C-alpha cells in the first residue's frame, strides 16, 4: 500500500498495430495519461516540488507561482495540494475550461492572461518581488531530471533495450531532454525526434517558441531530428488513435504519433516509442473530437 505519489510513473507501453503493415517496424505509445493527474507532467511536477523542498528552497509556508499551458499546472496543483503548498497558476485564456476547473478542484488559484509568453512574464515579475517562488519549468533542471530518473529507464526496460527511435512533442522540452540523456547514454545510436508545430499551426502542448522564450533547459544537440507538424495532421491522428486503437489523448499526442508514423514509413526495421502525453477528456469542450 502506498500514497498517490507512488502511482506516478511506470505507465504502460502499448503497441500501435493498425497504421502500418511492416511487421519489422514496431510503434509503441507510452501511456502517460495513466498518471494520477492525467499526464506526463506528473513526473516533472513531483520532482520539481520535492527537490525544492529537499534543498530548502521552499517550505510549507512558501507561495508558489508557475506559468502553464495546462498539463504542468494540473500536475503541480495535485502535488502542491498533497504537500499543503499555496499555488497560483497562470494560464492562457484560450485553454479549455476543463483545465481551469481541474486546477481549481485541486485547490490552486488560476489567473488567465492573453498568451503563454504573457503568462511567463507575469509569473516571473511576481516572483521577482520575493513574495512568490517560481518553479520555472522552462529553466528548471529538475524538470528533465525527472525523465532521467523515471521515463527513460522505463522505456529502456519495457523495450528490453531494443528501442531505436524516441519521439516526443516539444513544449518545455523536459521530456525529450531527459529521455535523450538517459537513452543516448544506454545506446548512442538511438534517434531522438522532436515535434514542433508548423509556422501557421496551433497545437496545445507543442510549441514553436520565439527565440527570447526558448526554454533554457533545451539543448538542440540532444535532438537528432525535428519534424514540423501541421495542426490538421495532429488533429486527424488524434481522432484516429482513439477510434482505431482506443488511445484517448490530446492533440500533442496526435502530433507525436504523426511524427512516429513518418519515421516508421522510412524504416525497414526498428522500435519506435512516442509519448502519449495526456488524456483526451480535458479537450472535450474544444473541437478536437467534434
Automatic annotation (TrEMBL):
Cofactor entry: pyridoxal 5'-phosphate
UniProt cross-references to Gene3D superfamilies, sorted A to Z: 3.40.50.1100
Entry EC number(s): 2.5.1.47
Domain of life from the UniProt record: Bacteria
Entry keyword Transcription: no
PROSITE patterns: CYS_SYNTHASE
Entries under SUPFAM superfamilies matching the protein: Tryptophan synthase beta subunit-like PLP-dependent enzymes
Keyword field: Amino-acid biosynthesis, Cysteine biosynthesis, Pyridoxal phosphate, Transferase
Family: Belongs to the cysteine synthase/cystathionine beta-synthase family.
Protein name (database record): cysteine synthase
Native organism: Sphingobacterium oryzagri
Amino acid at each position: 500500500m502506498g500514497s498517490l505519489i507512488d502511482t506516478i510513473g511506470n505507465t504502460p507501453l502499448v503497441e500501435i498495430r493498425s497504421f502500418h503493415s511492416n511487421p519489422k517496424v514496431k510503434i509503441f505509445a507510452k501511456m502517460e495519461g495513466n498518471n494520477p493527474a492525467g499526464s506526463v507532467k506528473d513526473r516533472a511536477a513531483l520532482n520539481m516540488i520535492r527537490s525544492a523542498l529537499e534543498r530548502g528552497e521552499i517550505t510549507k509556508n512558501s507561495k508558489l507561482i508557475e506559468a502553464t499551458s495546462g498539463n504542468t499546472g494540473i500536475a503541480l496543483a495535485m502535488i502542491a495540494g498533497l504537500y499543503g503548498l499555496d499555488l497560483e497558476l497562470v494560464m492562457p485564456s484560450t485553454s479549455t475550461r476543463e483545465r481551469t476547473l481541474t486546477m481549481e478542484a485541486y485547490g490552486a488559484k488560476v489567473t488567465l492572461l492573453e498568451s503563454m509568453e504573457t503568462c511567463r512574464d507575469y509569473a516571473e515579475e511576481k516572483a521577482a518581488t520575493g513574495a512568490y517562488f517560481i518553479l520555472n519549468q522552462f529553466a528548471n533542471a529538475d524538470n528533465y531530471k525527472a525523465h532521467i530518473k523515471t521515463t527513460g529507464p522505463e522505456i529502456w526496460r519495457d523495450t528490453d533495450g531494443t528501442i531505436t527511435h524516441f519521439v516526443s512533442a516539444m513544449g518545455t522540452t523536459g521530456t525529450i531532454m531527459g529521455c535523450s540523456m538517459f537513452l543516448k547514454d544506454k545506446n548512442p545510436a538511438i534517434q531522438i525526434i522532436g515535434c514542433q508545430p508548423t509556422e501557421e499551426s496551433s497545437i496545445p502542448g507543442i510549441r514553436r517558441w520565439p527565440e527570447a522564450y526558448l526554454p533554457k533547459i533545451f539543448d538542440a544537440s540532444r535532438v537528432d531530428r525535428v519534424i514540423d507538424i501541421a495542426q490538421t495532421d495532429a488533429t486527424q491522428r488524434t481522432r484516429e488513435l482513439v477510434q482505431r486503437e482506443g488511445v484517448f489523448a490530446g492533440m500533442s499526442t496526435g502530433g507525436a504519433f504523426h511524427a512516429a508514423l513518418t519515421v516508421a514509413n522510412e524504416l525497414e526495421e526498428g522500435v519506435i516509442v512516442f509519448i502519449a502525453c495526456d488524456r483526451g477528456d480535458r479537450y472535450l469542450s474544444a473541437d478536437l473530437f467534434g
